[in-house]
Sequence to fold (456 residues):
Amino acid sequence: MIYLDNAATTLQKPPQVIEAVAEAMYSLGNSARGTSSGSLKASRTVYEARVKIAELLGCPNADHVVFTCNSTEALNIAINGTVFPGDHVISTDLEHNSVLRPLYRLEAGQGVELSFVPADANGHVSYDDFEALIRPNTKVIVCNHASNLTGGMIDLARVSRIARQKGILLIADASQTAGCIPVDMGQLGADILCFTGHKGLLGPQGTGGMCIREGVEILPLKVGGTGVHSYSKEQPSEYPTRLEAGTLNSHGIAGLSAAVDFIRETGISTISLKENTLMRRFYEGVVQIEGVTVYGDFSASQRTAIVALNIRDYDSGAVSDELSEKYDIATRPGAHCAPRLHRALGTKAQGAVRFSFSWFNTEAEIDEAIRAVEELSA
Amino acid sequence: MREKELKLVITFHTTTAAMAMEKACNARSLPGRLIPVPREITSGCGMAWSAPPESREALEQAACSEGIEVAGVYQLTI
Fold:
């Protein structure tokens, strides 16, 4: 199989990630639950992973790295823990349903006001719109770092400057960028940066988290056992315990830790360059094929390794199915949980076929995928 | 049960701080190990750093230089 659905999850993982998970499953007890050797080993594993993630994503304090089971959980915690009745939130058309649905629920149930920075037919947003949409009660801007549909990016540093001037919190969704391009929450100016472990970070599914700037208050989504302050009726207020009720996925976190080692040893710039080169090669190969429409902007110097396209007026699901059945090429058709951007691109009915690349893809695979698109377009 | 002896016990608010302490001590070859918090004291975190009393200064210095927040420092016969 040629696996080109890495924006959904990376299927090929570094072998040391798989080995780390297996080793963890043989040897780890429950993190933060006593000082037996198994429990301590789990606590050490989780702690080392926090330190590595903090370094990789530019979080000043390792204890402000909170583990969750994925980006969706991190975004739910971040949004529901900072937005309350009477608040106004600004977000964008580039967001995934993991942002949109928590926001829509707050709008319907809590009377939270929402505004969205619109995307144009190329997936661009205007930074002036962020400023124009600010109201006196704007509490939070929730903003994607890169679209999971087009790979187009938003200049978060620019958004954060706008937010900071008005004392507005910036929640950044780095689901598509963490591990793929250099991400530094300080440089981006994010107050809360949400990430997932199983995409660009090359870790196991069921891992993810959030990096929190010191001083940012988040109401916990879950409360429960933490291994500390057991007689208190309230969830401990200190991060990361504050947001980590229940047993952590220390087996998965062990794998994520090994994945971060792999990324650091390989070099994130090296990974970024390779993925970008593969994406450009594919783009150049398909963009001139008659009947192919490619979505998004490829003139920007920085974007993630995604090419979303359609062939003529064919159903994107049928094209993806043909790619799988006839060529054994894995892609993702349909709406990609990005309804607002599909509307902006004019692809609500047709969807799009998304090709997304990873460190483990090769030029030969890209060329085979280009040939497949050529044949299906003929 | 083993014979009780005087120990220095350092407590923390979070498990993360306790793990940071262990790492800092290992890096500096400082004595001690993580133990469950003795019942004589209460602490946020369920584990504490236990070490010989004479290592107090070095341990506090290690915690301070690593920015590790200590909840309490005790001398207990445990």
